[in-house]
Amino acid sequence: MYTVVQLPEAPPSSRIREIFGSGFHLGRVGTIKLTYLDTFDWRIAGAGARLWLETTRGRRVLHWSENADGTAYTLPVPHEIRFASDLPKGFLRDRVGPICDIRALTPMGALRVNRRSGALRDEDGNSRGHIHLEEVAILDRAGAPADHAFVIRVLGVMGFDRQYNKIVKRLRKLGTTDRQMEEVFHRAVGVYGRGVGDYSSKLRLNLEPDQPSEVALRSILKRLFANIRANVAGVVDDIDIEFLHDLRVATRRTRSALTQLKGVLPRDQVDRFLPDFKWLGTLTGPCRDLDVYLLEMETYRRLLPEHVEELKPLERAIERSRQIAHREVCAGLGSQRFADLIDRWGRFLDGPTPDEARPKHALQPVGPVASARIIKAYRRMVRKGSGLGDGPPAEALHRLRIDAKKLRYLLEFFRSLYPGKRMVPLIGELKDLQDILGGFNDMDVQQAGLVRFADTLSDTDGRETRATLIAMGRLAAALEHRQKEFQRAFAGRFEVFAGPASQQHYESLFDPGGPR
Amino acid sequence: VRTVALWTIKGGVGKTAAAVNLAYAAAARGTRTLLWDLDPQGAASFYLRVLPQLDGGARVVVNQTTDLGWHARPTEFDNLSLLPADFSFRHLDLELDAAKKPKKRLAKRLRPLADRYDLILIDCPPSVSLVSEAVVRASDGVVVPVIPSTLSMRTLQQVRQFVGEYGRSRTRLLPFLSMVDRRKRMHNELRDACLADPSFLRTSIPTASVVERMGVTRAPVAATLPSQPAARAFEALWDEIAHELRIGP
User: Fold this and answer.
1) A31 reaches B (C-beta below 8 A)
2) A74 in contact with B at a CB cutoff of 8 Å?
3) How far is CA A89 from the centre of its chain?
4) What is the pTM of this model?
5) Whether the predicted interface score ipTM is above 0.95
6) How far apart are the CA of A118 and the nearest CA of chain B, in angstroms?
7) From the candidates B115, B217, B224, which should be mutated to test the interface with A, based on the most A CB atoms within 10 A?
8) How far, in Å, CA of B130 to CA of A128, rounded?
9) DSSP one-letter code for A30
10) pLDDT tens digits, one per residue of A486-512
């Protein structure tokens, strides 16, 4: 029995007395700072939940609610929680962990609440309900009040349903009683300059098959451009490693869209941007690789449980290199070259293409163009991957991995043109194959990385370093073993991807006649 | 979560007053606290303005069909909830006796609450029964009020023996001096004798009219008169218990 009413202003106290009756006793007053938390890409809101931190007199309590305006699970936390892994083991970590994974929790809105608590008592002096009257200031990022609201919360005690229902009826006359805190939440998020679901690394486009290809490609590129820009601040502030990853994915997708969809945008203009996007990829590559190593440390520890201590110097060495790499990324993102790229690319995307510069596919409907590109990319993969057998050479797998990525991007760009039901299994099959190809490549890259780290470690000798080097040798062997496993698994997965059922699926769905 | 029982065999020694005030002190420190009023008299429920009535009565405590937490009531204080008493608790030992593994039953019933509370404080009926066995078995600490009288100290011996016999190996016995009147010479002498025993908590609770007045104010002393010596003493006593049993928010 829980009700929240939100009003623009505090009602007069006489009105409050009328609503709650003579058994109403007003008690303590307190001030609470409330901060809504979510990941940059709204994973908690996406799961239909809310997480917020309440701070009173230096005490910090996390609140977790899975039903809007409902009661919350609370957990006092002694220190700042940035990642789900900072939470103590238990209910909240079990909930938040799988949702947020490695993404950091960041403030998405804040309130300052002046709360007066009171109780409703019956003639025997027993509590029938608990009341909170809250003057709410919605705070901006600087902590200054930007908006306000007045909130009344009523928590009824079980067994007193009648009184409770009467009060709710009277409260309804003041305002509605549904999803009231939700409204405050959305306003607070707005004051912070955000909106629920305003960012996702997924493309989520709505293309129409008969749209001119140029219009479709521009909308793909614009979405990718927005994602590049959205992640810059998070990369520089180093909030979590997904900002850099998302920025790189959006960059790679941009390059892939430009090179795979030739003849849609003017060639000479596109060519001027490609080197800059390539530069952006190269700039951010080393830092991402090191992020992956640090992420993989947990796996390394599991692979070598008896050498956990010896791996520590390796982890420290990676952390040092990562710091340097991150500084280089920040310098690049702060450079004139990057500012120019953003500026020119933005103007290019918004600007019109003069009729005389329009290449041949620009005005063709995107449906057939998309189908032709997808089927071509698929056939190429089938051709290249067939006959590789049980122990395919590393070089061939590497090339196939790049081709798979290209096909995947095309499927994602044009997903909205085709029936979702038919696209999902295709993307799933491709993803399964990519997991193998990617895993194989990762093991390769990581082994090479170990060799490089071994060089930096041996500068400072001593017994400790020798033990670390031996552990790294074992690690390399373990990685090689896993790589072989990926290699062996390839044939099976490829058979599914290139099998007759899949081929038929692709050929019928991406008939060059275009989607209908 | 830590489970702490307030228990003694002898009545009228300030057990329930201690339960309510200690629970309030813990909650005021930010510890998510559930006070379980297991005494059929329902005095703890009364003090915290909760109707001493539990839907389903003693059976709810024993039967595993519902979540006990569902019956917890909020109190007028932050972080403090109460599981109300019910007059049917006078038959709780009979209900328990009919259950499988009765001595382990209360511990089992409390397990699902572990994530919601940091502290479960049980106000037990002042008697020796199957209920006390099950409570001791479920508890990390048994806090025992002892008034400065020879009889009360003999009772402590019995309690000590009982906890040794039925508690788990890590169940701590934490006696403290209750209702101490410093104007009485005998109280002072017995107090010194008790504090020579290192297992006694160092803080003693004075006899005070503000504690007696809780029946009128129906609130913990510290909630109405925070600067009173008795309020301070309960806070200090709680801090000692929290330290001994490593309880914190």
Assistant:
1) no
2) yes
3) 23
4) 0.87
5) no
6) 7
7) B115
8) 34
9) E
10) 998 998 999 999 999 999 999 999 987
